[in-house]
Design goal:
The complex is a heterodimer. By secondary structure, chain A is an all-alpha fold. Chain A has five helices and no strands. Chain B has five helices and no strands. In chain B, helix 1 packs across helix 3 and helix 2 packs across helix 3. Classes of the chains: A mainly alpha, B mainly alpha.
């Protein structure tokens, strides 16, 4: 039970950090799940399921603000379906530690991108 | 098919693969590519990327669930509070642009990367 409370607290924190810094939920969900004891394979799969309510809420809010071009979103989204399946097959065939290292590379790329954006943005302080 | 539509399809193909392998939405490629190839403003690119990821995440989660890798109790325990957190984070984001916090978060990501890789 206390493990569930910890997971929920980390979920809240992960969602907040993700929106606050404009990074995708997966970037924080996957390390959080691994920290909670999931294997990389389960973390990747579970992160995607956890993301569904977050993007549902986010796209509903953004649609209300009039910021979503739905026609384009549908084209991108539908095109992503077959390659997402392909990606799942690749993830399933990789050893857990390789998958974890690949994810570590993604984290470093995200961190560098964020830092560069923050240092360049004259409006930031 | 117009060049623009082809670009959108290409963006979707790339995002889907990344999403399926790494468990992310794919915004990391969708947003910059919408800006670079389809001349989107960054704000519209982020919003449209979220809507596209709705399809990607559902498809990728279903595919991983078929393989039996989704832990549904963790998905709910993380995903539902995260939805509330995302609303909170978006609200704070509109009021401050904390450079120090962004840099601290970048360091946290690199530290996490180190822990995952070693």
């Amino acid at each position: 039970m206390s493990h569930d409370v910890l997971a929920a607290a980390l979920g809240l924190l992960a969602g907040t950090l993700s929106a606050l810094f404009g990074v995708g939920g997966g970037v924080v969900f996957v390390p959080t799940l691994i920290f909670l004891g999931a294997s990389a394979r389960v973390a990747v799969a579970t992160s995607l399921a956890a993301m569904v309510p977050v993007v549902l809420m986010g796209s509903w809010r953004q649609t209300r603000y009039g910021s979503v071009t739905w026609r384009d979103a549908v084209i991108i989204g539908v095109a992503s379906v077959p390659t997402a399946k392909l990606g799942e097959i690749v993830a399933d065939s990789l050893p857990n530690d390789t998958l974890q290292r690949l994810f570590a590379v993604l984290l470093v790329i995200t961190a560098v991108q964020l830092a560069v954006r923050a240092l360049r943005d004259p409006a930031a302080h | 098919m117009s060049r623009r539509t082809l670009a959108l399809v290409g963006i979707g193909l790339a995002a889907g693969f990344l999403s399926g392998v790494l468990g992310i939405g794919g915004g990391i490629v969708i947003v910059p590519l919408l800006v670079a190839l389809v001349a989107y403003a960054p704000k519209r690119a982020m919003a449209t990327s979220l809507a596209a990821i709705l399809f990607t995440a559902v498809a990728a989660a279903a595919s991983h669930a078929q393989a039996g890798n989704v832990d549904w109790s963790y998905a709910a325990l993380i995903g539902l509070p995260a939805t509330a957190g995302a609303v909170l984070g978006a609200w704070v984001h509109q009021r401050i642009a904390p450079r120090g916090a962004v840099l601290a978060f970048s360091v946290l990501l690199v530290v996490s990367a180190g822990k995952l890789a070693l």
